[in-house]
UniProtKB/TrEMBL annotation:
It comes from the Eukaryota. Residues 1-22 form the signal peptide. Disulfide bonds join C30-C47. This is Germin-like protein. Belongs to the germin family. Residues 61-212 form the Cupin type-1 domain. It is found in: Secreted, Extracellular space, Apoplast. May play a role in plant defense. Probably has no oxalate oxidase activity even if the active site is conserved. One of its GO terms (cellular component) is apoplast. It comes from Microthlaspi erraticum. Gene3D superfamilies: Jelly Rolls. Keywords: Apoplast, Disulfide bond, Glycoprotein, Manganese, Metal-binding, Secreted, Signal.
Length: 220
């Protein structure tokens, strides 16, 4: 029986190792296209034939320009990822610019597929992340000024808030071509269809009427 178990483990390893190797990029780059009719290789997205790639596939202009801030949270995130810079496909990296108005914030959120490293270009930000349940939900927080850097580990809830007396700007690199974003308040109170208020009332220890009011605020 022990020899059979050992053989079974070896068999599983033999099956999984080729899959792991296949996930690595097998070419210099893979410029993403939206339909297979325009591509010949598949590696993450459908890939443009490398012979047809141009410099424009790896270029994005205008990230130095300030973005307008006119929403409830007082920030504007400009993402540069595989969806608007197709040359990033399979390269495992992306970047964002974040503009913060006075008292603006990038509210608590997570990136399910990426670690983030943030650099403050202008202003003063209060930033932080919260560890997982198993680590006791500890808060790690810092006040950042121009030139300061802070790291948010993959998948953990984190935030930035402008606590200065002027608008702020930050740039962040993320370890995925498409890191994803899950904003906690929007997800919990703005889901479609809405989560049963009684479920949220018990989870947050609130009156169901308060939950319903919050869901109305985040209704899409």
């Amino acid at each position: 029986m022990k020899s059979l178990s050992f053989l079974a483990v070896l068999s599983l390893l033999a099956l999984t190792i080729p899959l792991a190797l296949a996930s690595d990029s097998l070419q210099d780059f893979c410029v993403g296209v939206n339909t297979p009719a325009n591509g010949v290789f598949v590696n993450g997205k459908f890939c443009k034939d490398p012979k047809l790639a141009t410099a424009d596939d790896f270029f994005f202009a205008g990230l130095h320009n300030a973005r307008p801030v006119a929403n409830a949270v007082g920030s504007n995130v400009t993402a540069v990822n595989v969806n608007n810079l197709p040359g990033l496909n399979t390269l495992g990296i992306s970047i964002v610019r974040i503009d913060y108005g006075l008292n603006g914030q990038n509210p608590p959120h997570t990136h399910p597929r990426a670690t983030e490293i943030l650099l403050v270009q202008q202003g003063t930000l209060l930033v932080g992340f919260v560890t997982s349940n198993g680590d006791g939900n500890r808060l790690f927080t810092k006040t950042l000024k121009e030139g300061d850097v802070f790291v948010f580990p993959e998948g953990l809830v984190h935030f930035q808030a402008n606590i200065g007396k002027s608008p702020a700007v930050a740039f962040a690199a993320l370890s995925s071509q498409n890191p994803g974003v899950v904003t906690v308040a929007n997800t919990v109170f703005g889901s479609v269809p809405p989560i049963n208020p009684n479920v949220l009332a018990r989870a947050f220890q609130l009156d169901p009427k308060v939950v319903t009011d919050l869901q109305n605020k985040f209704k899409k």
